[in-house]
Amino acid sequence: MHPTPLALILLILLAAACTSPTGTPPGGGTPQAIYTSAAQTMSARLTLEAGGTAVAQLTQIASQPTGTPVIIIEPTPPAPPATPTQLPVPTPLPTLSCDRAEFVGDVTSLDNAAFFPGSAFTKIWRVRNTGSCDWTPAYALVFAAGTPMVGPSAVFLPSNISPGETVDLSVTLTAPDSPGVYRSDWLLRSPEGALFGTGPDASQPLSLQVQVAGAAAPSKGAYDFAARACDAVWRSATAALGCPGSIDDPDGSVALLENPALESRLENEPALWTRPNAGSGGRITGLYPGYVVRPGDRFRAEVGCMRDSPGCDLVFRLDYRAVGGTIYNLGQWREVYDGRTTGIDIDLSSLAGDSVQFVLSVENRGDSLDADGIWFSPYILSAASQSSQTLTWSQRGGTDNACEELKIYLTGRTQATAQARSCKGGGVDLGSVPLTADELDQLLVWVIQLAPFDAELFNADVGKPLTSYMTFSGLGAGEATNAYITAMQSFAERLYNRIAD
Q1: Under 8 Å between Cβ of 211 and 370
Q2: Is the distance from CB of 149 to CB of 113 less than 8 angstroms?
Q3: Which range of residues forms the domain containing residue 145?
Q4: Of the N and C termini of the chain, which has fewer Cβ atoms inside 10 Å?
């Protein structure tokens, strides 16, 4: 018995509806016939629904006359859902904090600078305002942690500092009395009392670390420029300098020497070693804190080149200014490497009662590799001091290759003392003697009559050159003639021989 066309069509549809979705799909496994499991499930569901619809349609068709064409319309499967497009997540713009700072550099007192117990020094940090708010004078630099040392706990800013601008933050402190290494941390404080500093989160403090030596610095006179070198603000023609600095710094440096080697001799008193920046026309200056000049004050120093600096050619200057005012020159001295130094003695009485800042400076006019300037024992001699150096005499050469030095100190108008030393083998102190009444009278005559002078005497007897140098601090206006200079030479030589014998 042969099935009717309707029954055959139903069998085909039922077979299609019962086909497992895991069977081999039509098309022999081509890419067009491979779907994901989700797509296969959807296809099976559509096939069943289509089969039910076809049965209904065929039932109607079966009632039509035999021979009518059969048209089967298969539904088009829907396209697979599209994958959503991932939109980029916008990056939030960084917010600029109101108060934050950037450390630019140390202006004075680099970390681990050495100080004597009880020494006063000024620490200066240079910082930049990297926040979004102006810093006003209501902002302050405040002590935050570590050793407080002796000094203020807060220092207010000197002016308005806008974002992007820099400011030098300064605090004057006193080194502890006990030897050791000490650290002190400081932060900025807003008018509202919020503390902030440097670094990514504005929490890093401005710090200083100092080493305190084992003994106090010897003081000389009313103001010792060598002992207080790091109280000054030092600059070269190219940069701000730390104190003490590095002798290899091409920007220049300043350092304290306890036993300086001058071009003329070795010494055992402190001196400042000042190096201008490298290159022609290099310069270094030190601006000291304010000092109130008293009646009778005098500036004393000796300037020259350091030993083993044959290309040394320098100009030393002493200037002053009223605090924040115009700079005035008190004197300048040209020094070359010739085995001689220059003594300086300047009366400051015209400035009595004024608060001034002294400036020590050195300008290079020679080989920058040998631009080693020495300020030997720079200090202010007060009228209240017990004595003043009046005559300095030294002698080199002769038959016994002598190296002799003598200094005479005058105390008021009543007494004077001569000190002698041999400069052979690094220097030996020979002792001192008071001047006799006749010697004191002679010295006072010269002091009253003559103006200050430097002199050099040369004698080549018996083929052995003998050279003497003299520096005299007179108070008069008369010029020292050859007769005066020869008489002083004999005077100093007699005193030296009396002490040495």
Answers
A1: no
A2: no
A3: 99-216
A4: N
Residue labelled with tokens 């030296």: 496
Backbone angles phi, psi at 169, to 5 degrees: -100, 120
pLDDT tens string 184-211: 999 999 999 999 999 999 999 999 888 7
Q: Provide the token pair at 437.
A: 């009444």
Preceding amide of 250 cis, omega within 30 = no
Residue 28 domain flag: no
List beta partners, residue 122: 172
Alpha-carbon distance of 270 to 217, in angstroms, equals 10
Average pLDDT, the chain: 78
End-to-end CA distance of the chain: 161
Per-residue confidence at 133, pLDDT binned at 50, 70, 90? very high
pLDDT digits (tens, 9 = 90+) for 3-30: 544 444 333 333 444 444 444 444 444 3
What is the rounded CA–CA span in Å between residue 346 and residue 381? 10
* Cα-to-chain-centroid distance, residue 51: 91
Q: Are residues 321 and 469 in the same domain?
A: no
Per the structure, the count of domains in the chain is 4
Q: Which distant-in-sequence residues (6+ apart) come within 8 Å of 466 by Cβ?
A: 395, 396, 397, 398, 402, 458, 459, 460
Phi (first) and psi of residue 462, to 5 degrees: 50, 30
Same domain, 346 and 401: no
For the question of whether the overall pTM of this predicted structure is more than 0.70, the answer is no
What is the DSSP annotation of 11-73? HHHHHHHT--TTSPPTTTT-GGG---HHHHHHHHHHHHHHHHHHHHHHHHHHTSPTTPPP---
Q: Which of 330, 353, 383 is the last residue of a domain?
A: 383
